[in-house]
Amino acid sequence: MTGERRDRDRVDSSGPGRDRTDPGGDGPGRINPDGDDRTGPDERGRSRPDDRSGSHVSRGTENVSRRDSRADRLPDGGRVEGEPADRGTIFEDDREVELDRGPFQRWVANAISNPRRVYRSMFYVATIFFLVTTLFPFYWLLMVALTPEGRQQDIILTPNGFNPGAFVEVFQVLPFHWYMFNSFVIATASTIIVLVIASLAGYAFGRLEFPGKVPLMLLVLVISFFPPAAFFIPLNDLFNTQFVALEPITGDGSLYNTPGAMVLPLSAIFMPLAIFILTTFYSQIPDGLEDAARVEGTTRLGALFRVIIPLSAPGVATAGVLTFIAVYNEFFFSFLMTDGQPENWAPILEGILGYQGQYEVLYNLMAAASIVGVIPVAILVIVAQEKIVSGLTAGALKE
Prior knowledge:
By secondary structure, this protein is mostly helical. It is built from 18 helices and two strands. Strands 1-2 form a two-stranded antiparallel ribbon. A hairpin with a 2-residue loop joins β1 (91-92) and β2. The chain is flat. The protein starts with a helix and ends in a 5-residue tail after the last helix.
C-alpha cells in the first residue's frame, strides 16, 4: 500500500492530463500515452481528493442514468415517491401538464387553445350590451305609453294596465302631426343644402389640386368642433334684425319663427361631416371615368352629377341620412329660434314637451309621442341600411 501511494503521488506531480497509470506496463509509474482509462478494478472506483470536479460530473451522470432507468420502470413519468417533481417539465406523454395557474391564467390558456369559444362569447356580450343600451329604452317607452295615466310608478317590466289609446290621444291633445311635419321639412331642406354644397366642396378637395388645399380642409374640420352654443348669440341678433328685403316673405323682415332660422345654422353645423365623407368617396373614383365623360363634351359640373355622384351613391346616402337624423332630432336652435307654436315651424321636440303642463305631466302621452316621432327615422334607416353600411365601410379604405 505504501508503494502504490508513492506511485500515485509521482503520477499526480507529472502534470495535467497524465493522471491515469498503466497497470499493464513495465512498472507502476508508467503512463498510457493514448489517454485511455486502463486503471485496475481496485482503483477505478476510487476518487482522489484533488479531483473534485470529475467526481461531481460522474455523480450527476450516475443520478441522471438512475432517474432515466426509474422513468422506464414507473408509469407516472419517472417520479419516485418522496422524490420532488421536476418543475421544468411541462410535457408528459406529449400532453401539456396542468400547471398551477390562477382563474384568469386558466381562462387565457383556454382562449388560446379554443379561440372560437372566445369569439362566440364576445359576440354574445356585444349583443347583450347593444340590446340593453339601445333597445331597452324603446321597450321602456312602450311600457310607459301603454300604462294608464297615474299608474306609472308601479311599472317594473310589464305595463301596469293596458291603454293603447294613448297613441291616438297624442294627436287629440296637441296637433302633433304638425310638429312632425315641421321637423320633416326642416330636416329635408337642410339635407338638400348640405348635400349640394358638400358635393361641390368634396369634388374640389378630392379631385382638384390648388394652393392651400390641406389647410383649408383642416379649417373646415376644425369648425365642426365648435359647440353650437358658441354661434347662438350672433345668430340670434342676426335673425331678429329686420331686413326690408325680407318683409314681403316674413312680414316683419326678420327670420325669427321661420324655417330659415333653423335651416341655415343647422346646415352650417353639419356641413363639415358631409364634406369629409364625400371627399373620401370622390377621391376614390378613377380619373379615367371622368376623363371619358370630359372627352364626350361634358363639363366638370356635368361629370360630377352624371358620373361622380352616381358612382359614390353609398357615400352620398350615408352623408344624407346622417344629416337628416341629426337635424330631425336637433333641439337647441329649434327651441331658441321659435316660440314653440306649430304654426311657427316649431319642431317635434317642442310637441313632445307640450304634454308637460304647469300642474301635471302626461308621461304616457310623452312616451307615445316619442315612439310615434321615431317612426319616420326608423323607416328611413331601414330603407337606406344597405347604403349606409357600405358607405361607412367603403369610405374608410383608400385604394
